[in-house]
DNA sequence: CACAACTAAGTTGTGCGCAATTAAATGACC
DNA sequence: GGTCATTTAATTGCGCACAACTTAGTTGTG
């Protein structure tokens, strides 16, 4: 056996590998963003706005805080984003009567109707990735583990 | 065998899977950003600035266009970023004498010296991900394939 | 009740990402 | 040689991400 632990991985390779992985993730995230941008242009949504709409379509009216927890976004990002969605007539924001600090976000009829037009989007993206379902699951699994680990650190 | 192609994957599952994957990637990218932010704070670099420095450390002086090609970033992002690196005293920018359109970016002595202080960063990130080398390779492979496929679409 | 501690949104400022445009230099073609 | 398309950076404008701070409402404790 090697003296201490595992097969040797020279520092230089680690440095290069890290370079590749961090850059790969950065590049992949932006590549996804680009494809979503094209697919969502017809709907008048940006990618982060689409994520917020997904949450609202799936879980219904909810406070800003809850949206932020689901998407890991803070009020600094969500407040102006939600204002834009409100200007676009897709959501309403109203102070909760029980807790005046809280603002409940709910879909307008127009926001509700947009869902039907958004349904074809995921399949288009899925096709564009060129991955199989199994590979997507693997990717998702790895990303989830990385995110959890990184969030703890 | 099933009539046409493969095991049935209901639409609803596809939609949810897509939701998970696009969100997972988004979240992972930001989680990486957060960890790099902490690791790079001592160096006074942001994550994209670090990527530019990596390119310069590895490949030496080069025009803005080449940096953009390596990192898939355009001048709209790079021009202000490079100005900040120049203000920080890490790089110099000078018009090429052969081609007056081109601007060559080169490290200053301070930029060169920063490399030594940046060396420990990758290992810290690697440890923070909690992944094995093999998993990192898998992740990188999948991300690379996705990025290529998405860029073509 | 008063007052400190906490919580939810919002605001401000900085930096990145990208589309669209501009300006200057180069190269090709007639 | 002069016109025109192409190339390289820079600029402008908009939206997102995040840190730091502010404001207003809530809760807990003496």
List keywords for this structure.
153 residues; mainly alpha; homodimer; 67% helix; globular; DNA-binding
Structural summary, described in words:
The structure is a homodimer of 153-residue chains. Chain A has a three-stranded antiparallel β-sheet. The mean pLDDT of chain A is 90. Chain A has helices at 11-40, 47-59, 64-71, 75-87, 109-118, 121-129, 133-152, and strands at residues 62-63, 91-95, 103-107. The first copy, chain A, has 153 residues and is mainly alpha-helical. In chain A, helix 1 packs antiparallel against helix 6 (121-129).
In short:
Chain A is mainly alpha-helical. Chain A is built from 7 helices and 3 strands; from the N terminus they run H-H-E-H-H-E-E-H-H-H. In chain A, strands 1-3-2 form a 3-stranded antiparallel sheet.
In terms of topology, how is this protein built?
Two copies of one chain form a homodimer.
Chain A: H1 11-40, H2 47-59, E1 62-63, H3 64-71, H4 75-87, E2 91-95, E3 103-107, H5 109-118, H6 121-129, H7 133-152
Antiparallel strand pairs in A: 1-3, 2-3
Helix pairs in contact in A: 1-6
Chain A binds a DNA duplex (30 and 30 nucleotides) through helix 1, helix 2 and helix 4.
- Rg of chain A, Cα atoms, Å: 20 Å
The overall pLDDT of chain A, averaged over residues, is: 90
Strands of the widest sheet of chain A, in order across it, are 1-3-2
**What is the structural class of chain A?**
mainly alpha
For this structure, the quaternary state is homodimer
- The low-confidence parts of chain A are none
Secondary-structure element order of chain A, N to C: HHEHHEEHHH
Strand content of chain A: 5-15%
**What does the overall shape of chain A look like?**
globular
Using DSSP, what is the number of strands of chain A? 3
Compute the number of helices of chain A: 7
Task: Summarize the largest interface: chains and residue counts.
Answer: A-B, 56 and 55 residues
Helicity of chain A, in percent? 55-70%
